[in-house]
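Holo prediction — zinc ion.
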Amino acid sequence: MLIYNSATRKREEFVPFVEGKVNMYTCGPTVYHYAHIGNLRSYIMEDVLEKYLRYVGYDVKRVMNITDVGHLSSDADTGEDKMLKGAKREKKSVMQIAEFYTEAFFADCKKLNIKTPDVVAPATSCIDEFIMVIKSLLEKGFAYEAGGNIYFDTSKLDQYYIFNDFKEDDLEVGVREGVEEDGNKRNKADFVLWFTKSKFDDQELKWDSPWGIGYPGWHIECSCISMKHLGEYLDIHCGGIDNAFPHHTNEIAQSEAYVGHKWCNYWFHVHHLNTNSGKMSKSSGEFLTVSLLEEKGYNPLVYRLFCLQSHYRKSLVFSYENLDNAAIAYNKIIARALGLLKEEQGEVVEADFNAGREKFKAALDNDMNTSLGVTAIYDVFKMNTTAATKLALIEDFDRVLGLDIVVAAKKELEAEKVAAEQKANDPFIVEIEDMIRQRAEAKKAKNYALADEIRQTLASKGITLIDTPQGTQYKID
Ligand code: AMP
Ligand code: ZN
């Protein structure tokens, strides 16, 4: 399996530290607002990665944090705490905000068929671990105290910039408005591990620490939560591309300084969902949510398909026109699957099944080419094999793609059956269909007068007949 590794800027063969096992970490949401569909693009593509790793047989353990403290309005440690901003906006406590938006996030994930990671850890539940790691970084000389805060000293590293060759401007960096220089820093790139600064006096959540009452920086939480649950060796770390710098760069700095060896082998970054006016961001306040798409009548899985149709390493422009095209494609796939359910099933032909599977695997093995993975579904419909084989293949691919194709087709089949039963039991419908049959017989016997009379009788009851090459249909006014 080839995967693009942002740390080496190459597509590499994926080889985990321990054969057959994958340790995977995902940066979770900052729960001060609803997740927007841009955030969810990242989580959808990471979900596909996790499911594909499982599909090819790896035993995956995936951990995700919930950022409920420490993420400031600039990713570079300046500005107000995002959680506090959310609490002020809604006149609630930080914990109320965190609880509400964490629940909302997982509700959205459920609608999008995004599996909940094996471990989900809110940052506020791991304060002891943060303090332990920061203490050790101070002891090892990788951190220093200044102005009451604890900073990581980036000058102590041989290499700090991992993803961007010392060119910060080359990367899409998180929100930067309100960036102020922090005079306590020894080096420009240094970052806060623990805040106690009086400037943040209105910070609601604070904990005692060896350096005074305060709260952790954002970056330390991911390193500590990952190491707590996955140990010192991480196979793959995921996140949106805006997290590469400074967040992931800082995670690597502090984790490797702490463990004293290489920490994570592969970095999987999902590029952004943009609108015509630019990047979608929570802080701008103008963003699209899953609920909004639902209100507009879209099935959330249509959005999932929309994401799968593009490569995760390309930025993706959202428009309703593009989403409508995805809806058409989704409905077509379900209709084709429904057609298969109605066919004579036959047996699953193993050779055909394996051939179909190889095509799908070839697409996903090639740096998660989900767009070709979706094409593999269309190829299945065209295969010269039994309906049972085709349905088995589609169900198999859907373990990764998560589009609920056969589930939705079965639901439609059931709905069709119920409608047919209702029709058969409705005396009014039975009578109409009987009269349509009599009219067809009259026409066949060239008794056009009778045929016309039947049409008129039905018209007087508000029923309009429509003759089509497939037979007579009717409309009830
Ligand atoms: P946040 O809730 O801001 O901490 O972000 C949650 C995840 O969404 C992170 O992995 C971000 O990198 C990612 N993200 C933020 N904005 C976008 C976007 N417009 N498109 C795709 N992913 C994004
Ligand atoms: Zn993180």
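READOUT: The pocket of adenosine monophosphate (ligand 1) is lined by residues 27, 29-30, 38-39, 41-42, 67, 239-240, 242-243, 270, 272-273, 279-282 (CB under 6 Å).
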